[in-house]
Amino acid sequence: xxxxxxxxLGCHLCDEAMALIRHLQVxxxxxxxxxxxxxxxxxxxxxxxxxxxxxxxxxxxGDIGWPFTLEELRIFLV
Length: 78
Prior knowledge:
Blueprint: E1 2-7, H1 12-26, E2 32-37, H2 42-48, E3 54-57, E4 64-65, H3 70-77
Parallel strand pairs: 1-2
Antiparallel strand pairs: 1-3, 3-4
């Protein structure tokens, strides 16, 4: 599955979200991570600017925004 992590430079919460996604990879969930820099787009800044980190997936409906636990992320993605 393709997982997009909407993030920006210097976002420590985004680093925590990335660690949770990588933990799921280690567990054996087939995830391709795409980090999307929101500062590169006015539209992305408008949509995600106050919500990051936000995770979407090509296999899930909607998105999940911080704060979320490992279990909440797992449920969202699987």
